[in-house]
Amino acid sequence: MSSTSTVSSTPISLASRKLVVANWKMHGNLMRNQQLIQAYLPALAACTRTEVVVCVPYPYLAQIQTLLTGTSVAWGAQNVAKYEEGAYTGEVGAQMLTDFGARYVIIGHSERSTAYCESDENIAEKFMMAKRHGLTPILCVGETLLEREAGVMERVVGKQLETIIRLFGGEAFAGSIVSYEPIWAIGTGLAATSEQAVAMHQFIRESVAASDKTAADTLKILYGGSVNPQNAVQLLNQKEIDGALVGRCSLDAEQFIKICQAVPENSVI
C-alpha cells in the first residue's frame, strides 16, 4: 500500500482511490433501477476519491450497460459459471457477461455458497474463469459467528484463499479483489469494528504475499457486512481497507452516496 497521501491539486490515480461496490442482490425492476442510477450519478461524478461499481442481477445487465456507458461508474454481475459453455441450464458464462460490458463479478458470496453448497474448489474455478475472460473477480471470504468466537477466523479465511493458491498459484490474485465479509455481519446491522477488519485485511494480504508478493501488492481488499454511512467513515479511512462491498444501503441512493463520500480528503491510501 502507498504511504499517507496529502491534500493537493494533483489528480488522484485510479490505483489509489477507494473502491465502493454496490451489490443489489435480488432486488430491482426496470423503473426502480433507472431511478436509482439517475439518483446516483450526479453526486458520484464529484466523488474524486472513490471508484464505484454496481453489480446487478443478470436480467438487468443490458439496462445498466445503457445507463452507465459514458459515466465514471463501472458495472458487473453477482455470479458466473465455472464453465465456458455447454449443457448447463440456468448458468451464465463469463463471455456472456463481457458481451454486456461487465468488468467485475462477485464470486463466492456467502448467500450463494451457503444456499447452493458451493465448495471452495468450485468458487476457485469460478474465480479463474472470470480472470480468463478479463473480468475482475470480487472474491468474498469470511467466517461465521461461531468460528469467530472460537478464534479460528483466520484459519477459515486462510483456507478459502489457499484453495485458489493451491489450484492456480498466488499470481492469480494479481489485479484481483478480495472482500472480507464476516458472515455474522451480513444483513444484521452489526458490522465488524475497524480493528477487527484491519486485522483480517492484514492477514489476507500477508497470506497472498507469502505465495506471491507482487500479486499481493496489486490486490484490493474490501470490507463488506452491514456497511452504512456511519461506519463507512471509520472503515474507509483505514489504509489497510481499500474500499467496501455494500449491500442493503446500495439500494438507497442517499445512503449509498454518503458511503461513497465517506473517504475524507486526507485519507491514508
Protein architecture, described:
α7 (153-168) runs parallel beside α8 (194-209). The protein has 11 helices and 8 strands. β7 (220-224), α10 (229-235) and β8 form a beta-alpha-beta unit. Strands 1-2-3-4-5-6-7-8 form an 8-stranded parallel barrel, surrounded by 5 helices. The protein has 269 residues and is α/β, with parallel strands linked by helices.
- SSE order: EHEHEHEHHEHHEHHEHEH
What general form does the structure show?
globular
Order of adjacent strands in the largest pleated sheet:
1-2-3-4-5-6-7-8
Distance between the termini: 7 Å
Q: Percentage of helical residues?
A: 25-40%
Mean pLDDT: 92
Number of strands: 8
Q: How many distinct helices?
A: 11
Percentage beta strand: 5-15%
Radius of gyration, whole Å: 17 Å
Please outline the major beta sheet. 8 strands, parallel, barrel
SSE class: alpha/beta
Unreliably modeled segments: 1-14
